[in-house]
Specification:
By secondary structure, this protein is an alpha/beta fold. It has a domain of 319 residues: ABC transporter type 1, transmembrane domain (ABC transporter transmembrane region fold). 62% of the residues lie in helices and 10% in strands. It has 19 helices and ten strands. It has a six-stranded mixed beta sheet with strand order 6-7-8-3-9-10, sandwiched between helices. Helix 2 packs antiparallel against helix 9 and helix 3 runs antiparallel to helix 5. The longest helix is centred in the middle third of the chain and has 53 residues. The protein is elongated and about 120 Å long.
Length: 595
Amino acid sequence: MRIKLFSRTDSGTVQKTIAIFREEAAQEKHIVWLFSTLIPFSHFLYIVLLPLLISFIVQSLIQDPHDLATPLWLVGGIIVSGALSLFIQHYAFIGFFNHEERMTTRLAERAMNGLLRHSHLFFSNQKVGSLAGDVNTFSRSYLSLMDTLFLNASSIVVSFITSLLIIAIISPPLLIPLLLLTGFIIGESILSLQKRSPYRNKRKEMQSRLFGSIADVLGNQTLVRMFSSQQREVAAIVRERQAIEGVAKEEIDILQRSAEVRQGGLYVFQAITMIVAIYLVTQDQVSVAALIFTVTYLGRVTGAMYNINSIIRTAEQAFLDASKVTEILANDIEVFDIPHAKPLEVTQGDIQFHNVNFSYGTKRNEVVFQNLSLVIPHGQSIGLVGRSGGGKSTFTQLLLRYMDIQDGEITINKQNIAEVTQNSLRENIAYVPQDPYLFHRTLRENITYGNGHATDTELQQAIKKAHAKEFIDKLPHGLDTVVGERGVKLSGGQRQRVAIARAILKNAPILILDEATSALDSESEKLIQEALSNLMKDRTSIVIAHRLSTIAKLDRIIVLDNGKIVEDGTHTELLKAGGTYAKLWSHQSGGFIED
């Protein structure tokens, strides 16, 4: 029967994790080999050689109490071996721990690179809080595994093998009870591990969900306060934690029963071994040195072997901690650059959708666009309007290649965006969303995010054009003010002006504005509209708007309904046509569309 040490974790995932660890550690392969030699050797000096020398001292004194030379030489050997063990441990462990930290950094880098290669759609189906925790546990799992192998398991292996060899030489009869003891501990540890496996796996999954829930609540703390639901959210978190407690209790019960069985077995086997050893000494079949070495060995090794269960559990936990990110890294990337993809070269920012088909859902049964065709000449500004769910945001997401279409093609400057690098595509597009994305960093860092080489003069000009200078100058630290997580310290209008300044500074040939002025008051909007008009000159611009007054002066207005273009023309032409756009215009109340 095959024994499964890692029954909770798919063996394929374990192999993938090991492969990742080996790839990242290959850069320091010589260091790993050095540690794998020095650390076990230091364990040998301390765990095996020292007790052996002590037993020889006792045996020497028993045989000839007046002979001091031999014991003194042996004491010298103890001092030398002890000093050597400490020396090796000091330098080897420092190097070992530094190696672990470097590996942790590399694994975190690999995890972040792997995650950020996934598509926008991937992240929309994930809890960011859970992913953040998974990246951390993945990067630290190597540390846990190496500590277990080199600092714990290696001492057991070294002491077990070398001590048994020595006992086999000086007292072969004592091998039988010691081997039985070793087999008992290992067998019981594996059995206990297999019993606890389902509970630990479930607890890991529940903890990941709990971290995601906590991050979700904290990230939406304004909404929680708005509805006075603090107690309700805390109670929900407590319920999740109590559910974890219930699973942990089942695991602890198994662990306790296992510990009792293992401890009882240890006492029995130790007693049997001692009885056999004493009997053999009285029969002159075993030396006193062998007896002393056996007693010392039992005290050290059985104590270490008692922790076999913990060692296996820690190793398995390390693989489990790495499993989620390992699977994500192994999964196919939804949107990827084709081999030898070339950078997008934009001399003319014309855009063309040609017979584009796109659907959501695993079965592609949520059709958004079917045979959509549209040409946007270079330098033209168009407005996208329509009721919610009409496909406006999906249109821009496909242009940014956050998702891939199923059929047809999208071109910029006659280059298929599926055949150019994603980075070069997005470098040529400035995007201002309705809810601007801001980092928990300074205003300066957020505004220059799309153009890290911008001069201070260019930065100041962008701020002025976006009419952000007025509020920035009033802040205590100006551009060095930290805006808080997702810009929580700024108002909605201030965040949008920061996003507009960022787009101005990026100076890309294509501009996408997704309700970019929705959070501005009328006076600020008037100023921003002037700035945006200047920004859109000589650029291909796409403006999504519910407030139709913001797009009335654009070159062209596209009306989308259920993923189809139902109207296409100027503001004046569409009003005269009396179709969907005219109805939306007449139905507006306070400047917004009534759905």
